[in-house]
Amino acid sequence: RPRNSFMIYRQNRRTEVVAMRPGINDSQVSVILGEMWRKEKEEVKMLYRDLANEEKRIHSLKYPNYKYQPKR
To answer: Per the database record, which ranges form the HMG box domain (predicted)?
Structure first.
């Protein structure tokens, strides 16, 4: 499943947050990164949206019949 723009942002910025706050747990990292994402400039968000769209495009070429089916 291709990542959305926030998931790409989270993966790229996670080590930075962990370095600033050693011993922080993953849910706290997500809260901090969520706040950072909301404060990001629109140009930065657009960059990550473009990356997510490209990832989605490549995924659909590799797996043309893929349909997300949540496990509920």
So the answer is: 1-67
